[in-house]
Amino acid sequence: VQLLESGGGLVQPGGSLRLSCVVSGVTFSDYAMTWVRQVPGKGLQWLSFITSSGKTAYYADFVKGRFTISRDNSKNTLYLEMSGLRGDDTASYYCAKVGKMWDFLEYWGQGALVTVSS
Amino acid sequence: DFVMTQTPLSLPVTPGEPASISCRSSQSLFDSEDGNTYLDWYLQKPGQSPQVLIYTLSYRAAGVPDRFSGSGSGTNFTLKISRVEAEDVGVYYCMQRMEFPWTFGPGTKVDIK
Questions:
Q1: Which residues of chain B are modeled with pLDDT < 50?
Q2: How many CB atoms lie within 10 A of CB A105?
Q3: What residues in A contact B2, CB-CB < 8 Å?
Q4: CB contact at 8 A, B90 and B44
Q5: Among candidates B88, B51, B97, B41, which has minimal Cα distance to A94?
Q6: Nearest to A96, CA basis, from A40, A44, A55
Q7: Can you tell me the distance from the alpha carbon of B17 to that of A83, in angstroms, rounded to the nearest whole number?
Q8: Does B104 touch chain A (CB under 8 A)?
Q9: B102 and A111: CB-CB below 8 Å?
Q10: pLDDT of A103
Q11: Contact status, residue B16 vs residue B84, Cβ threshold 8 Å
Q12: Residue in B49, B103, B107 nearest the CB of A94
């Protein structure tokens, strides 16, 4: 199983960015997915969850209304659309595959660094 | 939201000795409907992505050595390492899955004395 994030980079405050996570080695459409981030040198922050069908999503309060999780099961790809970016959104963003029973974050990507700075 | 705390935040350990980390939740993680306690433990080794150790309170994930164990109830939980090995260094996080938004604890950094 491999998860490969892309789309990170430098963005100005107030800007937008879309992260992608391509999943291989499993039937992507069978599994829920999540995004987790980590500010450099700090702890993990859970961001968002999406069901296998993509019909239901949940968010951390501090990103609700600014970030949108989505997926394209035909492309085995998870997305995180981020808008209204702030300096404190600077972090490595990890996608993670959820276990079949929504029981744990089973596989993680290597992370995509997003830097919000002017 | 569920607030997770961990103690200690830093834990120097001696190889071969036991170690334990505590995690506390602001609300109970016990689901009376299914009898499960939705508390997981993750380890992030230096320079790596996190990996699951323990899920649903006490189930060891595949490939996790049996020196790791999880216990607790309600709002108080413990991760125990029966005999620490050098490869166990890193930051340990508890995470609750009782309700969305899921939340992590602040992490406990474990290193060798």
A1: none
A2: 27
A3: none
A4: yes
A5: B51
A6: A44
A7: 48
A8: yes
A9: no
A10: 86
A11: yes
A12: B49
pLDDT score of A26 more than 90: yes
Q: Using CB atoms and an 8 Å cut-off, which of residues 24-43 of chain A contact chain B? A: 34, 36, 43
pLDDT tens profile B74-94: 999 999 999 999 999 999 999
Q: Do B105 and A43 touch (CB under 8 A)?
A: yes
Q: Is B92 on the interface with A (CB under 8 A)?
A: no
- Amino acid in the structure at residue A93: Y
CB contact under 8 A, A44 and B93: yes
User: Half-sphere exposure (CA, 13 Å, Cβ side) for A80?
Assistant: 34
Q: How far is it, in rounded angstroms, from Cα A19 to Cα B108?
A: 29
DSSP per residue over chain A, as a string? Answer: -EEEEE--EEE-TT--EEEEEEEESS-GGGS-EEEEEE-TTS-EEEEEEE-TTSS-EEE-TTTBTTEEEEEETTTTEEEEEE-S--GGG-EEEEEEEEPTTS--EEEE---EEEEE--
CB spacing of B101 vs A59 below 8 angstroms:
yes
Find chain B residues with C-beta within 8 A of A59's C-beta.
101
Query: Cα–Cα distances in Å, from A81 out to A14, A18, A43?
Result: 13, 4, 22
**DSSP 8-state symbol, B99:** S
Q: Say if the Cβ atoms of B93 and A43 lie within 8 Å.
A: yes
